[in-house]
Amino acid sequence: MTFTLLGLAVLFVDLCTGADLDVAEDPPWNGKVFATVVNEMNPNLDWCEVIDRLDDVQMLVTRRQSLITLIDALKTGLRDKPFPINKLYTKWRCREAQLSLISSMIENPDVFCIADYPHRAVPISVLKNTPDDSDRLLAPWCCVELTELLLAMAGEQNVQTTAIRLLHGALEKWPDVVLLALFQVPPPMTELRQKFIEMVLPVFIIHHTNAVSVLNAIWNSEVLPRATVHNMIINAFLTFHSKAPDDQQRLARILDIANELKPGGLAELFSCPHVPFIVEMGLLASKRDYLKLDKWLEDKFAELGDPLVDNVLAQLQRRLFVPATSQSLSPETFSIMMTFLRNHSTKLSPLAKQKFIVLTEKLKEIQQQQVGSVRF
């Protein structure tokens, strides 16, 4: 008696999905015994082709015991041959069957862990605080192929919900590892992948201890175009800042991280098109002695022109008369900003010019009051 591949696959479906079998009451199928018997009856059977036959609408692995039975049978059937791991990542005709198997493996890495087989590794060695190597639930997410597969499935209607749920769950638990993986997946940069990154990066910047090490690794990624990666990180900084534009701690966090992005992180941050943000960053950077404010303002004026002058005035107005806080201007910074505005006052818009006149008159008034109080 011999088994055809199709006949064996149909039997496999019944075996592994538990059709007409109450696993809670009946003893589970023994996959090892099943495969041993099949090999004895058909020693030339190609079990790699059997795996191909699992691409079937009925083949939904929804229970742990089903996965155990399936893996026991496949490993026993393959004997000394390596498990054809790549077959898990190629596109199946029945994506529901493929995702059910992958999902079950993710949830039960003690039964079958894809990280135990050849894969493109997520570079977790770059992390300042490395994750627990013994965490088997994390292990599958250290395989770039898994993230790549789920990203593809997340764009397909029939399996979209489950694929996105799996990615979301991993991002909540291990955002540093999954972010690294998202930037290790080769082009194209799909809209869905970009949305995932844009959703996670701003939150990751403020909260995670591995923010600097992850962003530095991403900044120097050789998988995606550098310009694309750098723009995404700069945009994440802008998004993060826009949530609380008056929060100086956020601004300081951005500056600290950008200064750690080598090469050129700080320079690219100052080259972004959002002028109000640039001026704020420049003021903070000068406070940290990262740059000479007077020279930086003149260099930026040569690059940006009139909008810079208007925004320097806006910052001066906003900060000048506030109580002593982290936003207050030092006398030196105030002097540099006023000198810059006087030198370029002809470049101010009509409205800004009027504001500058009002500001200077108010400063004169305050100065006269101070002189009068001293005389008294």
UniProtKB/TrEMBL annotation:
Residues 1-18 form the signal peptide. GO terms for cellular component: CCR4-NOT core complex; P-body. It comes from the Eukaryota. One of its GO terms (biological process) is nuclear-transcribed mRNA catabolic process, deadenylation-dependent decay. Keywords: Signal. Coiled coil: none annotated. InterPro entries: CNOT1_HEAT, Not1. The keyword Membrane does not apply. GO terms for molecular function: molecular adaptor activity. Residues 195-341 form the CCR4-NOT transcription complex subunit 1 HEAT repeat domain. PANTHER family: CCR4-NOT TRANSCRIPTION COMPLEX (PTHR13162), CCR4-NOT TRANSCRIPTION COMPLEX SUBUNIT 1 (PTHR13162:SF8). This is CNOT1_HEAT domain-containing protein. It comes from Haemonchus placei (Barber's pole worm).
